[in-house]
Amino acid sequence: MNILLSGCSGKMGMNVRESAQDFEGAVIAAGVDIKDDPQAGFPVYDDFSKIQERIDVIIDFSHFSNLENVLGYAVEHRIPAVLCTTGYSEEQKSLIRDSAALIPVFYSANMSLGVNLQIKLAKIAREFFGNDADIEIIEMHHNRKLDAPSGTALAIADALNQDGSYEYTYDRQSLHRKRKKSEIGISSVRGGNIVGEHDVMFICENERIEIKHIAESRKVFADGALKAAAFLKGKCPGLYDMNSLIG
């Protein structure tokens, strides 16, 4: 599995490079990044048009602004793509769906298998409590993360709101009213070097259920990306996610 690693010189790119050494059959054949890396052990290009190696799959851990370049190269060469970046606009999400009609695209707001298990458990809790519980989501990340709330927090909220019965309330500092039953509260914390933490709370009158996931290392996302890349081998064009992989 010859991998093109987009964002290969960033923190997550470095983690993918490390994890790939222990992932059977995975080879980082080339990378794309705005920063050169003479120690990479593979060619690093500053533009997709310069790539010369045979590529089987793209893993993108760059930046949401790079999506058009990633998918443009993937579609042109009919290469599967694993998209691991968050912060996409609605227009970009539409581009992802359009590209998935031509190539296999794996897109998940969080590449951790554990987070996706958390989402499944949260959906069970939502069905169990019905409207008897107030739902609050708190997410915490390092102080360099650009988007808030996190894509994972929004994915959790969307999974709990498939019937559209809830509205989202972000933080609460500007509100001067009682909490409504028809809302999911989403709060963000940014600081230090927190890898990622998501806490989903179901708060009733006399008890509280919390479903929490803590990423202890960025390696968990790298491992998930490599598993997703292997999963796409031989797949037909389409949009895949962690539910596809777990299922």
What does this structure look like?
This protein has 247 residues and is an alpha/beta fold. The protein has two domains: 138 residues, Rossmann fold (3-Layer(aba) Sandwich); 103 residues, Dihydrodipicolinate Reductase, domain 2 (2-Layer Sandwich), CATH 3.30.360.10. Helices cover 31% and strands 26% of the residues. It is built from seven helices and twelve strands. Strand 10 and strand 11 form a beta hairpin. Helix 1 packs across helix 6, helix 2 runs parallel beside helix 3 and helix 4 runs parallel beside helix 5.
Taking Cα atoms only, what radius of gyration do you get, to the nearest Å? 19 Å
Beta-strand content estimate: 25-35%
Structural class computed from helices and strand pairing: alpha/beta
Total number of distinct structural domains: 2
Placed side by side, the strands forming the largest sheet appear as: 3-2-1-4-5-6-12
What's the story with the biggest beta sheet? 7 strands, parallel
String of helices and strands: EHEEEHEHEHEHEEEEHEH
Tell me the span between the first and last alpha carbons.
22 Å
The overall strand count is: 12
Overall 3D shape: elongated
Broad CATH class of the largest domain: Alpha Beta
Poorly predicted ranges: none
CATH superfamily of the largest domain: NAD(P)-binding Rossmann-like Domain
- Compute the number of helices: 7
Query: Which fold does the CATH topology of the largest domain refer to?
Result: Rossmann fold
CATH architecture of the largest domain: 3-Layer(aba) Sandwich
Helix fraction bin: 25-40%
The overall pLDDT average reads 93
